[in-house]
Specification:
It is a single chain. By secondary structure, the chain is an alpha+beta fold. It is built from 34 helices and 26 strands. The strands form four sheets. Strands 10, 11, 14, 15, 16, 17, 18, 19 and 20 form a nine-stranded mixed beta sheet that branches. Helix 4 packs antiparallel against helix 10. The relative contact order is 0.09.
């Protein structure tokens, strides 16, 4: 178990690390430790080459099936054209996969780049500047505002030191640091105030610390280790395609076996047994090839790629293709609070002065003592264009003054600071003495409870009177009310003196003060987040808040957002309470909790795994370094494009370009649309292939003429490409966000698709066989068996092709009628059907008939072919009507 340093006195830490806080390490000690501990940097995963990533694309079960089919087509059935087309599709799919998927090691590379380049350390009693990679445990590091902490440190001194740790802990407010030894044995990361952690930012003050851990042993290094050890989870899309591939394989093997056995025994005696066996084997292989929708992987990839373009227009940048569809299947969104649900910007929300609580919309006078105190007792640096630099709490106060249309720079000029008592974490106050004509205005701000101890008077509408116990109780009650609303409350006080102080300190400057008011601040929720959460809830998606912030703050924000609702059983749990639960207990009760507070990166991964153990598809949003492991563990990780660190973006599957939580809801809608459209393409392709297989199978069994390989190939080329791709461009179906998530156990055959494939495929085959029989009895060559058989086969060929184009229109809706205005809304589909129909009919051109072994049909025969195609729509619409009526009952 790793040792802790926050609960050990400085002397004990110094002895354990064999260092001197006064002199630092010697050169010999540094050399020895650098050999022992190595560089202060992060180790990444072994990178995979482009060649390795390319080969990985062929592990997919569906791809393996297609490759086997290509080999059998070429070497056994001698259908080399078919074999080449299948292999081209397979190669194209692999190339697109490598091109779209971003390398996972980018997350670790980004972590490395975050390391501060230099550090100020004390070595051999001298202050020197060195590259941070050369730090070793025991080094004494000096910190000041603006620094990035170069390693994990146990603080040995602190002067008004504040460190912003939101990227690591999720807490938006900078933490007041001190060197005081903590007594508790188990202290959450966010509460270890005497520790400074690698890659966090010093926002205020100065300090010194001794390096306790470097490189992969630091807290950020532990995250890097978790990233290295996190396995990529298979997306629902990949699982569904694998399942589809296995189903197809079983079906194909059964078809081959049945055709071979039945054909061999029914045709006994027609030719020698060995020749008959070879013939039937070739027929079986041809049927198997016809059963494989060789264009499906490429079509799925194209639909996903088109989906990424649509989502990009809605500010969702997809880094991995399957993520497009996965988000549509999401059951749970585990969202980080800071910067995702909130703005990551402290904002003044309420003021209390003159005995009343005021909203920020109310105008305040520039002579109001409360306003003067918050502006003057403030170390914010105001740059050009009113850019504010400093502690977020203090910049919020200055921003409020700007929002009030006050000339802050003029006020600071009129009240020049001449003395100050800096903030101290023990007394929790800061004061400034400011010259105001011939007097001096003393401005004080800080913790209300500490301030009240030093207040003797109160200012109410300019009337200054001695403060009473009742007034102090009222102030304390207002402070409590603000705190319950998760507001960070500061007290404001002042006094006017005749001269400056000889020795300004708390004992003289911060005494006999006049109460001016209270100011309540919060990192507010994003305005659009509440609506987005409500929309997600309507779509059956649960939103869970996970944060490093305090319970009161998180609970208040969650209630304001609608994540927690009065009367519901949703509960709040802290990281410490989470530690008491086993993985089994957490999995059993994870649905009871909607808010997790004071959590560590390890907790976030546990929460995601617990939901996944319950069969839920989990999306995780986040922007900090601390979110990276859980982003990678989740079924889909969603990074933030603006506030997100490169680490979180590198570990995610999708990035929100606008950091807008509402964008997730739109992405869910697009993801559901993509799944629906892939499902339509599969329904179309599979039912068409069943129709082809049934047609050839029955023709073989009945001893009829069989469609030639070139005819089957032409049908596949014409019908399996443009119409299927165009189905992927179908617009969002009405009411798609009112459906419940389809669940992890669902697949492309769910929702009536499997039964539709079977009956529609059989229907196609039956209609083609009927058309063949009609062809034998109608036409100019009746009475001439050889010519009439040619006409019949041509009619069957054209019917099989055109009926599939008519069926593509059916496939727009699994159960709904196609007779709506929305059916013709997809102009790409309309053109695809028209172009495919022209190409299909082109085989009847005089110079094409010989190549495709077809005859030229007359008007009556064409009428039969077209009627057969239209009958597909009519019959399927009747079936859908009965399905809808039965469904309503």
């Amino acid at each position: 178990m790793p040792q802790s340093f926050y609960d050990q006195p400085i002397e004990q830490v110094e002895a354990k690390l064999e260092t001197s806080t006064a002199n630092g390490l010697s050169t010999d000690q540094v050399d020895q430790r650098q050999q022992k501990y190595g560089p202060n940097s992060l180790a990444g995963k072994k990178k995979t080459s482009i060649w390795q990533r390319f080969l990985a694309q062929f592990k997919d079960f569906m791809i393996i099936v297609l490759i086997i089919a290509a080999v059998l087509s070429g070497f056994v059935a001698q259908e080399w054209t078919d074999a080449v087309i299948i292999m081209v599709v397979v190669m194209l799919n692999a190339i697109l996969g490598v091109f779209q998927e971003t390398r996972s090691e980018e997350a670790i590379d980004a972590l490395k780049e975050m390391s501060t380049p230099n550090a100020h350390v004390r070595r051999d009693s001298q202050i020197v500047k060195i590259p941070s990679t050369e730090l070793v445990p025991g080094d004494i590091v000096l910190l000041e505002a603006g620094d990035v902490v170069p390693a994990d440190l146990r603080l040995i001194s602190s002067n008004s030191l504040k460190i912003e740790e939101s990227a690591l802990t999720g807490e938006s407010v900078p933490v007041d640091k001190s060197s005081t030894t903590l007594q508790d044995e188990k202290v959450a990361l966010a509460d270890q105030v005497n520790m400074a952690f690698s890659n966090t930012n010093v926002t205020y003050g100065r300090g010194e610390g001794v390096v306790t851990e470097t490189g992969m042993k630091t807290e950020v290094g532990k995250i890097a280790t978790m990233l290295n050890n996190t396995d990529e989870t298979d997306t629902p899309l990949k699982q569904n395609l694998n399942q589809l591939g296995k189903t197809l394989t079983i079906m194909i093997l059964i078809i081959c076996a049945v055709v071979f056995v039945v054909g061999f025994f029914t045709k006994q005696g027609s030719q020698p047994a060995d020749k008959l066996a070879i013939e039937m084997f070739l027929v079986a292989v041809s049927l198997a090839v016809a059963a494989i929708p060789e264009g499906l992987p490429a079509i799925v990839t194209i639909i996903l790629a088109l989906g990424t373009q649509v989502m990009a227009k809605h500010n969702s940048i997809v880094r991995k293709l399957p993520a497009v569809e996965t988000l549509g299947a999401t059951d749970v969104i585990c969202s980080d609070k800071t910067g995702t649900l909130t703005q990551n910007k402290m904002t003044v929300e309420q003021l209390f002065y003159d005995g009343q609580t005021h909203s920020t919309q109310q105008k305040i006078s520039d002579t109001e003592p409360a306003l003067l105190a918050m502006i003057l007792a403030n170390d914010t640096k105001i740059g050009d264009d009113q850019n504010l630099l400093g502690d977020p709490t203090e910049t919020a106060l200055i921003q409020y003054a700007f929002d009030q249309q006050l000339d802050v720079l003029q006020l600071l000029h009129d009240y020049q600071r001449v003395q100050e008592v800096p903030f101290d974490s023990e007394r929790k106050l800061m004061s400034t003495v400011n010259q105001a004509d011939d007097k001096y205005f003393v401005a004080v701000k800080g913790a209300p409870d500490q301030l009240l101890k030093r207040i003797t008077k109160i200012d109410q509408s300019g009337q200054i009177t001695p403060i009473t116990d009742e007034q102090k109780a009222e102030i304390a009650a207002v402070n409590e009310q603000m705190a319950q609303k998760a507001l960070r409350v500061l007290g404001l006080a002042y006094k006017v003196v005749d001269q400056t102080y000889t020795d300004p300190k708390t004992d003289n400057v911060e005494q006999d003060l006049i109460f001016a008011g209270l100011v309540g601040m919060i990192d507010p929720e994003r305005p659009e987040a509440k609506t987005a959460i409500a929309q997600a809830k309507a779509a059956g998606i649960k939103t869970v808040m996970i944060t490093g912030d305090f319970q009161v703050t998180a609970q208040a924000i969650a209630e304001r957002l609608g994540i927690l609702n009065p009367g519901e059983d949703d509960r709040v749990i802290t990281g410490a309470q989470l530690d008491e639960l086993s993985d089994a207990d957490l999995s059993a009760h994870v649905e009871d909790y909607s808010v997790y507070t004071r959590v560590s990166p390890e907790h976030k991964v546990r929460i995601v795994k617990a939901w996944q153990a319950n069969g839920k598809i989990v999306a995780m949003t986040g922007d900090g370094v601390n979110d990276a492991p859980s982003l990678k563990q989740a079924d889909i990780g969603i990074g933030m494009g603006i506030t997100g660190t490169e680490v979180s973006k590198g570990a995610s599957d999708m990035v929100l370009a606008d950091d807008n939580f509402a964008t997730i809801v739109e992405a869910v809608k697009q993801g559901r649309k993509v799944f629906s459209n892939i499902q339509k393409a599969i329904l179309y392709l599979m039912s068409c292939n069943v129709g082809e297989v049934l047609t050839v199978f029955m023709m073989t069994m009945l001893g009829w003429d069989i469609l030639a390989p070139v005819q089957l190939l032409w049908i596949n080329l014409v019908t399996d490409t443009l119409p299927a791709i165009a189905l992927g461009l179908e617009p969002v179906e009405k009411g798609i966000m009112e459906r419940q998530p389809r669940g992890k156990k669902s697949n492309f055959f769910s929702g009536g698709v499997a039964s539709s494939i079977v009956y529609q495929g059989i229907l196609e085959g039956v209609i083609v066989l009927i058309t063949y029989q009609l062809g034998l009895n109608f036409g100019p060559h009746v009475g001439n068996p050889s010519l009439q058989h040619g006409d019949a086969l041509t009619m069957a060929f054209l019917t099989l092709g055109l009926i599939q184009l008519f069926h593509a229109i059916n496939s727009k809706y699994v159960h709904q009628s196609i007779f709506t205005k929305r059916t013709l809304a997809n102009k790409w589909f309309n053109w695809a059907i028209l172009v495919s129909a022209i190409i299909m009919a082109a085989v009847e051109l005089p110079f094409m008939t010989k190549f495709f072994a077809v005859t030229e049909l007359n008007g009556l025969q064409w009428g039969i072919v077209l009627a057969a195609g239209v009958s597909m729509i009519i019959i399927v619409e009747i079936v859908k009507l009965f399905e809808r009526k039965l469904g309503k009952k």
